[in-house]
Design a protein that fits this description.
The protein is an alpha/beta fold. It has eight helices and 16 strands. It folds into four domains: about 80 residues, 2-Layer Sandwich (Translation Initiation Factor IF3), CATH 3.30.110; about 90 residues, Alpha-beta prism (UDP-n-acetylglucosamine1-carboxyvinyl-transferase, Chain), CATH 3.65.10.20; about 100 residues, RNA 3'-terminal phosphate cyclase, insert domain (Dihydrodipicolinate Reductase, domain 2); about 70 residues, Translation Initiation Factor IF3 (2-Layer Sandwich). The protein has a four-stranded mixed β-sheet with strand order 1-2-4-3, covered by helices on one side. The protein starts with a strand and ends in a 7-residue tail after the last strand.
């Protein structure tokens, strides 16, 4: 049994989620100790518990230590099971972080997997659902993943209640990926949403982002859609914006920003535009969100994968460390002229 120390690096929930994800897809038993040791309140929170219980169902795993506050968990998966599942993260727990842990085992299952998930679609400290649909999944498609996400309703902090349906077709294996040049920026797209709030909230976010990008000299089409919904199916108000640049090499670079009580809509749009422009100016084809999400897939793919991102984040570093421990791979990380080049020879996992 592999033992993983959850206090490594940033010592947060990402180590727990990524360890269980790779344990589930590889069907390797694992023991995780010191879970979230570097957080003010160590141990499992409800959202981490939901991830573990979901993967337990999807792999018929034998598990110990699944309770709130637990700092040690053993996980022994048996089989990757396809099928239709429903999981409720509770309140505004992040749906995208939940999917980070469950997608790998879903795509390597023997047939179609459907995950109906209730929680937060657009919450702080996690990628937005629009980023997932328009940057992450299209990038995974280049590796051979056929998956989709339907947003039934959005959910924001603190009430949550968002509902998404993820569907994936089985893969036999993953192709390696090379995302090393950004090329020319062809277009910038985005979604500005305001739920149970006035329409002008979304309009002001979109206008602010467009204005900043134009003033910064971005000379390509900018198309930001509005998602304005005021009906009662949503539990609470919320707003935000996601942007992504489409490039000539096929790379997708994204950014986002969340609305908060007392935070002007113009500032929300400005933040998203500034984040996007920062990556574009670096000429790196992989943004900081995407770099940490791709690590596990690069390690599972056949052949050598390489990505170029502005810097090595703590999340990316932790994900690399977990992948090396779980899969016995060796990542190469080089820094050159304001860029971080990450490559690995994947194990070429094949579905059985």
């Amino acid at each position: 049994m592999i033992e993983i120390d959850g206090s490594y690096g940033e010592g947060g929930g990402a180590i727990f989620r990524n360890t269980l994800a790779l344990s589930s897809v590889m069907l390797k038993p694992v023991k995780i100790v010191n879970i979230r040791a570097r957080r003010p309140t160590p141990g499992l929170k409800p959202q981490h518990l939901t991830v573990a219980k979901a993967l337990q169902q999807m792999t018929s795993a034998d598990v110990t230590g699944l309770k709130i506050g637990s700092t040690t968990v053993t996980f022994k998966p048996r089989v990757r099971k396809a099928g239709d599942y429903f999981f409720d993260i509770g309140t505004a727990g992040s749906i995208t972080l939940f999917l980070q842990a469950t997608i790998p085992v879903a795509i390597f299952s023997e047939s179609t997997v459907t995950l109906k998930v209730r929680g937060g679609t657009d919450v702080k400290w996690s990628p937005t659902i629009d980023y997932y649909r328009n940057v992450f999944l299209p990038t995974l498609k280049r590796m051979g993943v056929n998956a989709s996400i339907e947003v039934v309703r959005r959910g924001h902090y603190p009430r949550g209640g968002g509902l998404c349906i993820f569907k994936s077709e089985p893969v036999n294996g993953l192709s390696s990926i090379q995302i090393v040049r950004i090329g020319e920026i062809l277009e910038i797209k985005g979604v500005a949403h305001s739920i149970r709030l006035p329409k002008h909230v979304a309009e002001r976010m979109a206008s602010s982002a467009e204005h900043y990008l134009r003033r910064a000299g971005v000379d390509v089409p900018i198309n930001i859609e509005l998602d304005v919904q005021g009906n009662s199916k949503h539990l609470g108000p919320g707003a935000g914006i996601s942007l992504w640049a489409i490039t000539s090499t096929g790379a997708l670079v994204g950014s986002d920003s969340h609305g908060e009580r007392g935070k002007p809509s113009e500032k929300v749009g400005l933040e998203a535009a500034q984040k996007l422009l920062s990556v574009l100016k670096s000429e790196c084809p992989v943004d900081l969100h995407l770099s940490d999400m791709l690590i596990a897939y690069m390690a599972l793919a056949r052949g050598t994968s390489t990505i170029v991102t502005p810097r090595l984040t703590t999340h990316t570093e932790s994900n690399i460390w977990v992948a090396e421990k779980m899969l016995n791979v060796n990542f190469n990380v080089r820094r050159e002229k304001g860029k971080c080049i990450i490559s690995v020879q994947g194990i070429g996992l094949l579905a059985e």
